[in-house]
C-alpha cells in the first residue's frame, strides 16, 4: 500500500488530501500539522475550514484511509510520498521584507524530513514557492541525510477557495515538474499514477521543475492582472458614463480574451494573489529585470487604488463625512463560499471608514466576530486558539466603533449606508423594501461586488453606487 503524508493541514493540504483519499481507496493518506487545534477540528464534526462539499468527502474517508495527526515525524518517516503544503507568507523583516516569500516553514519541514527519514522518498512541493526552491530543498535534504534518495517534485495547487472540491474533482490540469534524470522521471510517474485515478491523461502536464514552480506564480499573476485590468476600466467607466458590465461582455466575447474573470469589484483579496505577485516582483528584481518587476507591481497598485476609490466614494457620497454614521458592512470574507478573510478587501475598506470615524456593523455568514476584530487589529490573534476554530454559536461582539452581528437585517437596522463587500447569494435576496424602511434617509447602498439590481433599489428610494456603472444624478 502506497503511503502519503502531507505536512500542513490548511486550506490546501486538507481538501487536496481528502480528495486523493476519496479517489484512491487503496492509498493511505495522513495529513499532519503542528497546530493541534487544527488537527482536532479535522477530526471533529466542525472542520476548520468551510468549503462546499468538503464535509461529505472527509466523512466518507476519515478513519478508513484518511487520517489527521499531530505526530508529524512518525507519519513522515513511514511515507513513500511526502507532500509539503505549509504556508509561504510574505517575509516581514530582513532581506526582501515585504516582497520575498518567507520559506521558514518550508525549511524546517525539509530539515525534519531529512532527520526522520529512513527510506527513500518523493518530496512534493504543494505550497506555492519561488522558482528554484527545489534546488535549495534538495541541498538541505541531501546534505542532512546521506545514503537516502530524495526526489523532489513540484506539484503546485490551482484550486480556488469556495470551489476547492469541484476544482479538485475536475481540475483544468494537474502540473507535475521534476528532474529530467531517470530517477526524476520515475518520481513523476509515481505521482502521475496517483492522479491518474481520476484525472484524464491529457490533463496531467509534466514539465521540468522550474517551469512548474514558475507556472504557479505566473497563473496567479495573470488572474490578478485580469482583475486589475477590469477594475482599471471600471474607474474609466465611472468617469465617462460607460458601463463596465457592458464593456466586460463586449470584450469577453472575443475568443482570444474569453468571458471569465472579468467582473469589476472592490478589489481582489485572499492569501495568494498579492503575496505571489510580490514574490514574482522580488524574483524579477533579483534577476536584474526591474522593468518586468514594475509591470507586475502595477497590478497590486491598481488593486489598492480600487479599494481607496471605493472608500472615497462612500465618504464623498455621504456628504463628505461618515463621522458617527452607522454603516452596515455586508460580507467580510474575501469571496463567497469561504470563511477565509486573509487579505480581504473588507479589511482596508473597514479601516478606511473607521479612519473617518464611521460606526460599523459587520455581518458575514461564515466569519466569526473574533476573526473580524482580529483582522481589524482590535484583538491579538492567538495561534493556540485560532478564531476559525471557535464554535460558531451566534454571538454579538461590540466595541465602541465596531459591532459584529449574526444577521444581515440586524446589521442594517438604523444604518445610513450599506457596503456590500462579499458576493454572498443571500445579499441578492434580501427584502430591500424592508431594508429601506429600517434605514436612516437618504439610504445609500455601495455595491462593491455588483450583486444587487441597482435600478430596482433606486425605485425603492435608495441612492446606489455600483462599481464601474453610471452614477446616480
Ligand atoms: P494555511 O496557513 O491554511 O496552512 C498551512 C499549515 O501548515 C498550517 O496549518 C500550519 O500550522 C502548517 N505548518 C506550518 N509549518 C509546519 C511544519 N513545520 N510542520 C507541520 N505543519 C506546519 O495555508 P494554505 O492556504 O493551505 O496554503 C498553503 C500553501 O499553498 C501556500 O504556499 C499557499 O500559497 C499555497 N496555495 C494556497 C491556495 C489557497 O487558496 N489557500 C491555493 C493554492 C496554493
Automatic annotation (TrEMBL):
Residue ranges annotated as transmembrane are: none
Q: Where is the UDP-glucose/GDP-mannose dehydrogenase C-terminal domain?
A: 328-454
Q: Which GO terms describe its biological process?
A: glycosaminoglycan biosynthetic process; UDP-glucuronate biosynthetic process
Q: Which GO terms describe its cellular component?
A: nucleus
Q: Which InterPro entries match?
A: 6-PGluconate_DH-like_C_sf, NAD(P)-bd_dom_sf, UDP-Glc/GDP-Man, UDP-Glc/GDP-Man_DH_C, UDP-Glc/GDP-Man_DH_C_sf, UDP-Glc/GDP-Man_DH_dimer, UDP-Glc/GDP-Man_DH_N, UDPglc_DH_euk
Any idea which positions bind NAD(+)? 8-13, 33, 38, 86-90, 127-128, 161, 272-275, 342
Q: Which reaction does it catalyse?
A: UDP-alpha-D-glucose + 2 NAD(+) + H2O = UDP-alpha-D-glucuronate + 2 NADH + 3 H(+)
Which keywords fit this entry according to its UniProt record? NAD, Oxidoreductase
**One matching Pfam family:** UDPG_MGDP_dh_C
Q: Which NCBIfam families match?
A: NDP-sugDHase (TIGR03026)
Q: Give the family from UniProt.
A: Belongs to the UDP-glucose/GDP-mannose dehydrogenase family.
Official protein name in the record: UDP-glucose 6-dehydrogenase
Q: What is the lineage of its organism?
A: Eukaryota, Viridiplantae, Streptophyta, Embryophyta, Tracheophyta
Amino acid at each position: 500500500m502506497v503511503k502519503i503524508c502531507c505536512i500542513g493541514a490548511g486550506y490546501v493540504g486538507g481538501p487536496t488530501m481528502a480528495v486523493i483519499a476519496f479517489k484512491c481507496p487503496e492509498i493511505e493518506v495522513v495529513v499532519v500539522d503542528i497546530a493541534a487545534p487544527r488537527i482536532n477540528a479535522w477530526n471533529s464534526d466542525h472542520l476548520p475550514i468551510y468549503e462546499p462539499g468538503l464535509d461529505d468527502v472527509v466523512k466518507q474517508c476519515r478513519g478508513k484511509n484518511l487520517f489527521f495527526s499531530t505526530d508529524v515525524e512518525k507519519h513522515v518517516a513511514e511515507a513513500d510520498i511526502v507532500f509539503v503544503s505549509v504556508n509561504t507568507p510574505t517575509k516581514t523583516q530582513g532581506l526582501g521584507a515585504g516582497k520575498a516569500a518567507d520559506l521558514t516553514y518550508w525549511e524546517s519541514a525539509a530539515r525534519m524530513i531529512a532527520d526522520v527519514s529512513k527510506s527513500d522518498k518523493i518530496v512534493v512541493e504543494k505550497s506555492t514557492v519561488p522558482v528554484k526552491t527545489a534546488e535549495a530543498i534538495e541541498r538541505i535534504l541531501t546534505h542532512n541525510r546521506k545514503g537516502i534518495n530524495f526526489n523532489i517534485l513540484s506539484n503546485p495547487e490551482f484550486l480556488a477557495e469556495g470551489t476547492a472540491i469541484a476544482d479538485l474533482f475536475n481540475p483544468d490540469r494537474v502540473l507535475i515538474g521534476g528532474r529530467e534524470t531517470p530517477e526524476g522521471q520515475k518520481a513523476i510517474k509515481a505521482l502521475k499514477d496517483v492522479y491518474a485515478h481520476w484525472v484524464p491523461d491529457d490533463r496531467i502536464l509534466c514539465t521540468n521543475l522550474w517551469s512548474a514552480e514558475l507556472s504557479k506564480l505566473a497563473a496567479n499573476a495573470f488572474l490578478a492582472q485580469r482583475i486589475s485590468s477590469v477594475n482599471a476600466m471600471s474607474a474609466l467607466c465611472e468617469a465617462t458614463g460607460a458601463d463596465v458590465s457592458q464593456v466586460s461582455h463586449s470584450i469577453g466575447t472575443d475568443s482570444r480574451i474569453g468571458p471569465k474573470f472579468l467582473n469589476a469589484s472592490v478589489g481582489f483579496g485572499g492569501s495568494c494573489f498579492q503575496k505571489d505577485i510580490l514574490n514574482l516582483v522580488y524574483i524579477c528584481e533579483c534577476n536584474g529585470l526591474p522593468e518586468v518587476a514594475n509591470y507586475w507591481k502595477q497590478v497590486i497598485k491598481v488593486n489598492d487604488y480600487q479599494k481607496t476609490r471605493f472608500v472615497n466614494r462612500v465618504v464623498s457620497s455621504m456628504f463628505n463625512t461618515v463621522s458617527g454614521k452607522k454603516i452596515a458592512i455586508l460580507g467580510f470574507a474575501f469571496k463567497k463560499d469561504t470563511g477565509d478573510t486573509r487579505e480581504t478587501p473588507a479589511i482596508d475598506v473597514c479601516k478606511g471608514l473607521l479612519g473617518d470615524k464611521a460606526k460599523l456593523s459587520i455581518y458575514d455568514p461564515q466569519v466569526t466576530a473574533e476573526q473580524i476584530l482580529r483582522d481589524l487589529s482590535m484583538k491579538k490573534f492567538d495561534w493556540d486558539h485560532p478564531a476559525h476554530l471557535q464554535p460558531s454559536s451566534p454571538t454579538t461582539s461590540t466595541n465602541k466603533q465596531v459591532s459584529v452581528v449574526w444577521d444581515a437585517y440586524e446589521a442594517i437596522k438604523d444604518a445610513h449606508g450599506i457596503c456590500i463587500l462579499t458576493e454572498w447569494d443571500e445579499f441578492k435576496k434580501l427584502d430591500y423594501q424592508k431594508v429601506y424602511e429600517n434605514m436612516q434617509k437618504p439610504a445609500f447602498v455601495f455595491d462593491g461586488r455588483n450583486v444587487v439590481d441597482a435600478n430596482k433599489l433606486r425605485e425603492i428610494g435608495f441612492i446606489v453606487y455600483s462599481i464601474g456603472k453610471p452614477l446616480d444624478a
